[in-house]
Inverse folding.
């Protein structure tokens, strides 16, 4: 074989090897990027709790985190009220929800705008919770009526907001527990929101009691008090990890009873509220 043919063959092999390595590198990078989206709830452990929340005697029904205020907001049912608290459960302020009914879920939207779920009416109510104590009016708030079959004892329970897609996630509690993505009509439109059933999400759970959506990682947290767990699902509702809330697991001495709300803050700390007035704080184990 001539030197010319040999070196041409050698160069061709080197080129093919480099091309192969580039393809492998791209594939691995894609897989690593997918892995970066995982919250890995199974790696979380209790660091505080149960903490008795100040300003609440009973009926803590939902939880959300406001990045603007860097604090937690708990919605109560009976009395209809929102309570802003610190990460250790200390009271910041109380906001009465005048003429609201069956307030079972809350989600921070933007600035001082929050969404509140009314279970039996199957409404999402958008209202502004301005700084300071006081109250807000149901009549003056914007209502989104959802076309989801519910009844007063089994209505919408969890509520989460996707700030990228400008859409909501809501859950029907039990019996026929289900998760829906809610598309909001354009501003000024007279059309009703469109509720799309997510058939996979929450499958196998006895009920759904709370929701949280992490838009950065495109991950939905699904809380179930009857199944005593939090499920991490992707944006399609496929389960990726799970945190058990049963005593003896995840640093818990006892099972979290009646878990009603779940949220993550900007640091990745996980919070759960349970009836009557308890707060649990979880952090990811350091490697």
């Amino acid at each position: 074989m001539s030197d010319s043919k040999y070196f041409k063959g050698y160069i061709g092999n080197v080129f093919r090897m480099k091309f192969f390595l580039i393809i492998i590198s791209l594939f691995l990078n894609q897989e690593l990027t997918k892995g970066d989206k995982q919250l890995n709830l199974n790696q979380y452990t209790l660091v505080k709790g149960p903490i008795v929340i100040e300003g609440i005697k009973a009926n803590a029904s939902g939880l959300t985190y406001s990045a603007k205020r860097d604090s937690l907001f708990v919605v109560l049912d009976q009395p209809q009220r929102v309570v802003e608290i610190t990460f250790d459960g200390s009271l910041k302020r109380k906001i009465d929800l005048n003429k609201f009914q069956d307030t079972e879920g809350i989600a921070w939207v933007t600035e001082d705008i929050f969404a509140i779920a009314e279970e039996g009416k199957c409404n999402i109510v958008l209202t502004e919770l301005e700084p300071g104590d006081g109250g807000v009016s149901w009549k003056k708030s914007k209502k989104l009526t959802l076309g989801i079959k519910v009844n007063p004892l089994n209505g919408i329970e969890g509520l989460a907001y996707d700030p990228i897609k400008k859409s909501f996630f809501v859950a029907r509690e039990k019996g026929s527990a289900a998760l829906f993505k809610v598309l909001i009509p354009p501003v000024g439109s007279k059309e009703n929101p469109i509720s799309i059933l997510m058939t996979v999400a929450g499958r196998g759970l006895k009920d759904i009691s709370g929701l949280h959506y992490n838009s950065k990682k495109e991950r939905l947290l699904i809380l179930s008090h009857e199944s005593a767990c939090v499920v991490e699902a992707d944006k399609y509702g496929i389960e990726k990890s799970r945190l058990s809330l049963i005593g003896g697991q995840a640093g818990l001495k006892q099972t979290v009873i009646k878990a009603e709300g779940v949220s993550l803050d900007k640091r990745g700390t996980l919070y759960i509220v349970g009836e009557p007035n308890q707060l649990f704080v979880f952090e990811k184990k350091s490697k």
Summary: The chain has one domain: 43-284. Residues 43-284 form a domain with the Neuraminidase fold (CATH 2.120.10.30). The longest helix spans residues 3-37.
